[in-house]
Amino acid sequence: MKVAVVGSVNMDVVARVAHVPAPGETLLARSWSRGGGGKGANQAVAAARAAAASVAFIGAVGDDGDGQALRAGLESDGIDVTGLESAEAPTGVALISVGDDGENAIVVVAGANATASPLSPQQTAVVADADVVVAQLEIPVERVLEASRLRRPDALFVLNASPSAPFGDNGVADRLLSACDVLIVNEHELRDVARTTAADLWDAVDAVAERVGAVVVTLGSQGSIVAVGAERRSVAAFPARAVDTTGAGDTYCGVLAARLGARRDGLTIDAVADAARVAGAAAALAVGRHGAQASVPTADEVDDFLKETS
Question: CA-to-CA distance for 283 and 179, rounded, in angstroms?
Answer without folding.
Answer: 26
